[in-house]
Amino acid sequence: RLRLPACPNPLQAFLPTGSPSRGRTTVGVRCSGTVTWKIYVSARVRIMQKVVVLKHPVMRGQQLSLQDLLLEERDISNYSNGYIAQINDAVQHIMRRPATIGTILTPRMLKAITLVHRGKNVVIVAKDSSFLVRMSGKALMNGAKGERIKVQNLRSKRIIEATVSGANQVTVDL
User: Fold this and answer.
1) CB burial class (10 A; 0-12, 13-18, 19+) of residue 168?
2) Among 36, 105, 106, 145, whose CB has the most other CB atoms within 10 angstroms?
3) Which letter does DSSP use for residue 89 in this model?
4) What share of the chain is helix, strand, coil (3-state, %, to 5)?
């Protein structure tokens, strides 16, 4: 339908201002040099990546294990809220809602297991590159692995912030 003159130079593709860079979008194609023209073409940009999906249906509140998960290459161009790319990032997390076989896991679907409970005794591990000290403490907040919580040192009664590193264990980097 278009009667464009032949372009003596290689064609250049570009994204018009405001066009999304993935999913359904518009791509511009231009010829520059002695002959100039520009057209816009509808396109669908797919981003393929290995992501964590469910091997079988799971229930709300179910704790995930290796047997529930697998890596599959999928189109993630429409996943603006993220996705889980490593199986270990989903193992031992709890499902916030039920999901069917083949569902791509997103961070919003998962809840980390609480490893430290408020009011319970914890082991505080203070460390740097050359030494490690363990002391008793009391958790002032609930926490999952990697979360920062407040803990009271039972000996000094001092309140500190520490990172949950395991069941009833927190770490302070010096």
Assistant:
1) middle
2) 105
3) G
4) 5, 50, 45
* Three-state SS at 66: helix
Is residue 170 within 8 Å of residue 122, measured between CB atoms? Answer: yes
Q: Which residues of 15-78 form beta strands (DSSP E)?
A: 23-31, 37-45, 48-54, 69-75
Chain-centroid distance of CA 159 in Å reads 31
Q: Which amino acid is at 2?
A: L
Provide the terminal-to-terminal Cα distance of the chain, rounded to the nearest Å.
Answer: 70
- Among 64, 66, 123, 69, smallest CA distance to 94 is for 64
Decide if pLDDT at 73 tops 90: yes
Q: What are phi and psi of 88, to 5 degrees?
A: -65, -20
Closest CA to 102 of 136, 75, 126, 142: 75
* pLDDT at res. 62: 95
Beta bridge partners of 87: none
In angstroms, what is the C-alpha Rg of the chain? 26
Contact 162, 151 (CB under 8 A): yes
The closest alpha carbon to 102, from 72, 75, 67, belongs to: 72
Task: Dig out the tokens for 14 from the structure.
Answer: 């570009």
